[in-house]
Amino acid sequence: MKKSIIKLILLMCTISFLNAENSKYFDIDEYIKFTNQEQITTDFIKQIQKDALKIKQQNKKVKIVLVYPGKQLTDYWMKSKVSFEKRLDELGIDYELVLHFTKPHVETRVQSKLLLKAIKDNTDYLVFVLDASKHAKFIERIISREKPKLILQNITTPLRKWQKSQPFLYVGFDHMIGSQMLADYYIKKTKGVGKYAVLYTANGYVSYMRGTKFIDYVSKNSDLKVVHEYFTNTSKEKAKLATLDLLKQDDDIKFIYACSTDIALGVIEALKQKDLVGKILVNGWGGGSSELQAIQDGYMDITVMRMNDDNGVAMAEAIKLDLEGDKQKVPTIFSGDFALVEKGIAKEKLEELEQRAFRYTQDNAK
What we know:
Strand order of the largest sheet: 2-1-3-4-5-11
Number of strands: 12
CATH superfamily of the largest domain: Response regulator
Number of domains: 2
Number of helices: 13
Strand content: 15-25%
Signal peptide: 1-20
CATH class of the largest domain: Alpha Beta
Helix content: 40-55%
InterPro entries: Peripla_BP_I (IPR028082), SBP_2_dom (IPR025997)
Oligomer: single chain
Largest sheet: 6 strands, parallel
Main location: other
Protein name: Substrate-binding domain-containing protein
Family: Belongs to the bacterial solute-binding protein 2 family.
Distance between the termini: 58 Å
């Protein structure tokens, strides 16, 4: 009886937490409808896919600062920077770009200092992320000012509390859409039955959207049960240790759901050590170079691949429109496309996806 009551309380707490987190953000379609941005969003997406058209006019050189959590194994952040620069160059924009790489989750104090410096240095456009709760406080200080104009990367769900006073642009690849694609793959592959584990990044936005939402979707659409959950701070070594720990308890789980590239590579190392590659499924998240290599080598079973360079192009095109006085043509959100890449994919198909995803960055993001 007591166990049943405890389970009920835990379930009620989980539902309450999910509802609270859901209420913080607009879904993409919901926000676009809320702001009547259907047409400008459609037009902007078309502009991203076209060749660059030179800027009509520019009165002064603009300063752009990127504060990225780029000290990771994934090449997403460097590719973002390269595609952004190349599109700015093609557009003929006169700019100065300053790049700062920080460690994800653990350097919020460093990040806050860099944001304050960007404001003091009269920055025109600031590109940052929103993952930890502390980030929101920094961001609110910035969007209350006229300068710098803020681009939030790796988030596509506007915060409700900011209503229409939003950052200049949200840009990235919707975490929930990508995670649901992976969930559908796992449900089909396992026939919806069995146990699995989830390895999160840190306690924040990305873990919620990629991890918690994944579990919620799987539970609603299958009989799969999550039996282990770990936070890893996006550390490959911590992911490896977490995997070894969970395997001591359950070596019959069907798959390990990894919320990032670094985590996936740590899981793979542990599976290699235990000779369980191919017996327990593992995914990547993002489809960068290291993940695609792991797919080709047969160590990774599936990844959701971002059409990576579109986000850099979107940032450049938004700045161009703003400089031309056409800010009203910039939607609040740009969310890029995904493709599933499975182990055994034909070489020709993979090359086709790489050409599309890395149209500006193949062999350049090193």
